[in-house]
Amino acid sequence: MRQNGGSGGSLFTTIAVAASLGLLIPALLIGGAVVSWREPDRAREILEQQMEDRLDVLSKSLAVLVWNLDSAAAREVVSAVMQSPEVVRIVVTEGASDTPLVDFHEPSRRRGEALQGQRPVLRAGEPIGRVTLEIDDHLVVEAAARQQRLYVATVGGQLLISLVLVLALMNSRVLRPLRRLSRFAGDLAGGRFDAELPPTRADEIGTLASAMDGMRSALQQQFDAQAGLIDRLRGLAETVPGVILQLDQDGQGRLTFRYVSEASRDHLGVAAAALLEDAERFFAQLHPEDGAAVRGALAQSARTLGPWQQEFRVLPNPRGESRWLYANAIAQPQDLGGVRWHGFLTDISRQRGDAQELERHRFHLEELVEARTAALARATEAAQAASRAKSAFLANMSHEIRTPLNAIIGLSYLMQRDAVDAVQQDRLAKVGTAAQHLLAITNQVLDLSKIEAGKLQLQIDSFRLEALLAGVASMIGPKAVEKALAFEVDCPPSLGRLVLEGDSQRLTEVLLNFLGNAVKFTEAGRVELRVREVEPRTQPLRLRFEAEDTGIGIGADALPRLFQEFEQADSSTTRRYGGTGLGLAISRRIAELMGGEVGVRSQPGQGSLFWLEVPLPWQSAGENAEAVGPAAPALLPQFNGYRVLLAEDNPVNQEVAVAMLQRVGLEVDVAADGQEALERMAGAAYDLVLMDVQMPRLDGLDATRALRRQGWDKPILAMTANAFAEERERCLAAGMDDHVSKPAVADELFAALGRWLGQSSAHGRSQSTASPARPTGGLP
Prior knowledge:
By secondary structure, the protein is an alpha+beta fold. It folds into 5 domains: 148 residues, Beta-Lactamase; 38 residues, no CATH class; 108 residues, 2-Layer Sandwich (Beta-Lactamase), CATH 3.30.450.20; 163 residues, Histidine kinase-like ATPase, C-terminal domain (Heat Shock Protein 90, 2-Layer Sandwich); 120 residues, Rossmann fold (3-Layer(aba) Sandwich). Helices cover 51% and strands 19% of the residues. It is built from 21 helices and 22 strands. The strands form 5 sheets. The protein has a 5-stranded antiparallel beta sheet, with helices on both faces. α1 runs antiparallel to α4, α11 crosses α16 and α18 packs parallel to α19. The N terminus and C terminus are likely disordered.
């Protein structure tokens, strides 16, 4: 640290120069400028005033003389005024002729800027002549310059004396104590904590000195603590299970140990002091087969500055025991291309022995894994075969159950429309209701199978909430009226007008399940459906649907089981009310698939409240959303003039389908299988084909492919009792245009015909439409 012992120190010089530049010179320059600016103006004002005064004196003194044309006396008066050294010229003229009566002129006095003034000579208020006076300002300018020099000398001298006094005081009271504190700080930096501290003063420098004295105590404590820490770390390094090391490599590749713990004697057989003297003694202790690898690993770590991590052997100890060591060190770059490693060596002999033992068992483990893998493959193949068998069984079961149901539902529909006896109509309605109930149970089993197989997919569409609720109400309201129950739907109008995005059919299915159960288990009172926003107008909008009733209620012990498959509150519920116990389970699965959840709150004898919360994207109310819900009853459509071919192998289903088609004015031909359908179409013109899928000789898929290859481009509608989505995809892939599931409900069949008849002349294969949704009902 540089020490300055006199007033010529750099800080003193800096302050002196700064004070001179910042105080003295600006004061002189500014003061001089002010004097230079103000004094000439004041002198000129005085000079102008003197000129005015002299003109007044001359005009008054010369009035009588000019009137009398006494030029001699006038010359004496003017001569007296010309005695002033600043007067350059005086001209006195008489009358209006401007003839000079007196003219005194001293050109030698014109050394600067001249000022000129005139004054009329008056007699009884009338002008009788004129006096012209010219004055030079060089004397005034010289007086202003002398004033400026005097100001600079006076002010500069005073400032200089003040500056010298201030600097002397600053050097004595500030700089000299600071230099002493600087020397004291240098002693502290060098670890000389017994250095003498300058005497304490009652000012800021004294406060600084006290703070530095406190710093001396703190530094001394830290120094002692660090010394103790170093001693502890050294002791710790000597006791850890391994060798702690610090290894350097210079730019020429020479290795030197900077530090090695005393554990090197146990691990390497060499004392730490010996390794510090010569690093080659470390390599001399390595196994001959590992020495070159260790050097190569160190060289690689030095090039890449990556860690040195390596396992190697050392020479056997006197007892003949071979040892394995593991090196783990971090490389840090040093000056001049050097590298320093900080790390440790650990004895891993036991781990290596264990690894060798594990290696001996590895082969046996591989054989066991191969055997288990083969067994798992066989089990997987068996599971896949079982899954395929399950799917085939369900598809076959769907076909076998739906085929007779098609006949039952179709014939009961036809007979009910033809019957005139009220008793017969009532009995036929009950037959249809029983068949629909059996169909609903079949659909539930298939839905559950789809859910478990992960094949149930949501069909996203746009719909208005008010339309969906109206459809639900139209299906539940009559059932509630039959039991004399009050049924209400509570939904804010602003919410009902929103256009939502989601699977409206599945959402309707869940609500119908909740409300159907509410009506079923309520003998008196009311059933209410409420809709609320969980969080106002979020995106997506999270809606809460609540179906509340005043029915029998549910016990607390049964609530956890309600949403499980094949579960109801108790066995008496099944005996009294029926049902499979699948409806709520399927509702829970559908809600989860939509990203929502379901729940229930109930007490015995106090009714139940089933709720559904589900997120649905939304947009402002519009007219583009599809209205969800059953259409109002309408007259049967008429398709007069159209000819269709029905390919169906079941005689009863033929009879049902023909009767339904003829009822709406269609001309119908029947083919018992796909081969007969091809033969009939070769000689007749049809507007549409209703094609069963499973038929003898040639099934509906192969028959459709053959028709498309022959260039037939009219609509082909599949009619199949297989309700799985895969069946629909197979039909569309084969070339069919639409899909009607069995049992064929009249409204669905007529709606499908309405979509395609009338399009025959402009039919295009790209106009594939989604198959109509099967009717949904309350799930028991």
